[in-house]
Amino acid sequence: MLKIEVLEKTDTNLRIAVKGADVPLMNALRRLALAEVPSMAIEEVVMIENSSILQDEIIAHRLGLIPLRTDLDGYNLPDECDCQSEFGCPKCRVTLTLDAEAKDGTRTVYSGEIVSENPEILPVSDKVPIIKLAKNQKLKLEAYARLGRGKAHAKWQPVSMCAYKYYPKITTPEKKCPDCSKCVDICPRKVLAIKDEKVEVRDLLACTLCMDCVEACPQGKASPLKIEWEKNQFIMNIESTGALRPERVLKEATKLLAKQLKEFEKQIKAEQK
Q: Measured between alpha carbons, how far is 50 from 219 in angstroms, rounded to an integer?
């Protein structure tokens, strides 16, 4: 039976232990989080006035890469919206504006100056620099944000990192190691420690299974230190861009996996008829 334990949780990071799973399931969730879970990003920009030194295309590209807070329940994907319009509608599009001018001297325009018609759809951070304007230069534009998937463009990825690893299993020597601490010293993550002249595990979950500690042991292949991994047990780490909470990303990934499996089952049944 599949069991999930939350190891660490913040607004942008989620680390869980998954027991009773296999590599195909973990990789499917990872790929869905990266490529299929939708998020909001600026897709089109209409330049009204741009007297800066940067071309319109460069500014538009920068705007597209600013993570936006996403409301999956309030908006439709463009290809699933009832309007079926290339221009979009209030159900699948959000309008944002930016009107900045350098009056007294050079200044930096930040993402916090973007104004949205929906106060819930705004840049995740107010401190993302967009452009520097010299004195008397001006930037005025209108941008349109839509939901999209990471497989179309990285700007729609709701995660900056999504990875998994096997759950580590470390067997330490039963005897004392009074003259050697090489296995402890070589580990950059400080997984092992020396206590009462014996090697013990200090932080099991920090182990990356690199085997450097085993190779550093002077006893070579006869080393009593064993680094292994638990079968069908994994540690998954999801780091969100802030567009969605990491637990929502995982929830949406499981929903998409269930949907794809049902569609695959229907196709198989149709082929058998």
A: 69
Considering only CA atoms, which of 89, 210, 204, 223 is closest in space to residue 146?
A: 89
- Identify the burial level of 31 via C-beta atoms within 10 angstroms of its C-beta, where 0-12 means exposed, 13-18 middle and 19 or more buried: middle
Give the containing element (helix H, strand E) for 10.
Answer: none
The residue-averaged pLDDT of 243-254 equals 96
CB 181 within 8 A of CB 192: no
CA distances from 103 to 106, 137, 171, 209 (A): 8, 8, 67, 57
70-103: pLDDT as tens digits: 999 999 999 999 988 888 899 999 999 999 999 9
Q: What is the pLDDT, as a whole number, of residue 69? A: 97
Question: What are the CA-CA distances from residue 150 to residues 73, 161, 192, 256, 261 (Å)?
Answer: 18, 12, 38, 14, 20
Encoding tokens for residue 172?
Answer: 């330490």
The arithmetic mean of pLDDT across residues 264-272, rounded, is 88
- Residues 4 and 15: their CA atoms lie apart, in Å, by 10
The helix (H) or strand (E) run that includes residue 64 is helix 56-64
Look at residue 179 and tell me whether its pLDDT is greater than 70.
Answer: no
